[in-house]
Amino acid sequence: MSSSRAQSFIHTVLQNSANPAPLSIVKPNGHGQAPVNIALSKYWGKRDAELNLPINGSVSISLPGLGTTTQISVFEGNEDWISLNGKTLPAGDKFAKRLSAFLGWFRKSSTTAFKVDTTNSVPTAAGLASSASGYAALVFALDDLFGWQLSKSQLSLLARFGSGSASRSVYDGFAIWHKGDSDNGLDSFAEEINVTWPEFTIGLVKVDTQEKSIGSTLGMQQTVETCDLYQSWPQQAERDIHNIHQAILNKDFTTLGKTAEHNALSMHATMIATWPPIVYWQPESVAAMHVVWQLRENGVEVYFTMDAGPNLKLILLDTDKQAVLNAFKEINRPIEFIQPFKG
Ligand code: PMV
Fold it and tell me: What pTM value is reported for the model?
């Protein structure tokens, strides 16, 4: 990551800093905290790998209380010290290397090293991606350490540069990530959708929490390069974002649920149709889908979405929690419910 375009992107964002010397710390420790988020309309495909710009926009719901907490400080040294969930990571660790490369954009000199202590609080039954909350929390922590006082949109730009879906994790509640059109990447950030919906419920169905077989960056690249079906994805994604956004504003649960499930299955169809094929599903994932479809046949309005892994995230209203729980008990799957707008 040594491109001048990326350099200029970071430079431009930091021009809005309240600190006239944005790479000089204003306090000994910076603190950040951010929630995980689940895309209701997915991001799949990069148009620019250098600046991490998406081909299509996306819409999400954050799950407050589940996410990442990060402390950061600087010291004189040649190597960062990174701890994840209380364990110090070896320098060659994949996660540590990616984090250090990102932090490289914020070093005052070659002897500025960062000490990062990061903890994920994801529930046992989650299987949720932590890179979104991780990069959002890190950007909040940097903002605190360096006294930038950047706006949420500017923090979203920086988080996006670290991990696309992190652009949405700077917000609680619903968020929309605009894909942007410009080459400099300055119009590709997320904004809050200001709607409170207390009955809106997410159910986490764990199938497997092991690390995914193929990461999202590689998966997207392979899809864009080898999948003919992908041609139709950007148009569908933009239509779905519009419909889901409207459904959130109107609290139209049926449109939201249908569109979100259809969107997730369409994204997975593009993954499956790459070469070599990318299939994140396991037999238990498909069994869980059938439970959802059976519930709907029986008049219980529940939908699902899935990301780059085998776990399902259910979308329902709180009145249907018990019916959903009972149906999943029959296939021995516990569910963890989260109501994003209920403390
Ligand atoms: O931000 P990434 O690189 O972790 O990619 C996220 C991809 C999906 O989770 C599959 C979809 C999304 O919009 O979150």
Answer: 0.96
pLDDT at 320: 98
CA of 164 to the centre of ligand 1 (A): 7
pLDDT at 265 over 60: yes
Using DSSP bridges, classify how beta strands 174-177 and 53-54 pair: parallel, antiparallel or unpaired.
unpaired
Pocket test for ligand 1, best of 63, 216, 263 (most atoms within 8 A of CB): 216
Give DSSP secondary structure letters for 51-70: TTEESS-EEEEEEEEEEEEE
Contact 86, 96 (CB under 8 A): no
Q: Calculate the alpha carbon distances from 341 to 86, 123, 174, 178, 198 in Å.
A: 30, 18, 10, 23, 5
pLDDT of residue 65: 84
Mutate to test the pocket of ligand 1, among 37, 41, 43 (most ligand atoms within 8 A of CB): 43
Residue type, 23: L
| Residue from 176, 149, 154 nearest 245 by CA | 176
Identify the residues whose C-beta falls under 6 Å from ligand 1.
39, 42-44, 58, 129, 131, 163-165, 216-217, 307-308
Q: Which two tokens stand for residue 289?
A: 């889908």
Centroid of ligand 1 to alpha carbon of 131 (angstroms): 9
CB contact at 8 A, 47 and 222: no
Summarised one tens digit per residue, pLDDT across range 243-260 is 999 999 999 999 999 999
Burial of 166 (C-beta count, 10 Å sphere; 0-12/13-18/19+) = buried
CA 308 to ligand 1: nearest atom: 10
Buried b (16+ CB within 10 A) or exposed e, 95-118: ebebbbebbebbeeeeebbbebbb
Q: Which atom of ligand 1 is nearest to the CA of 131?
A: 4
Q: Which two tokens stand for residue 93?
A: 């660790």
**184 touches 258 (CB < 8 A):** no
The token duo for 247 is 């459904």
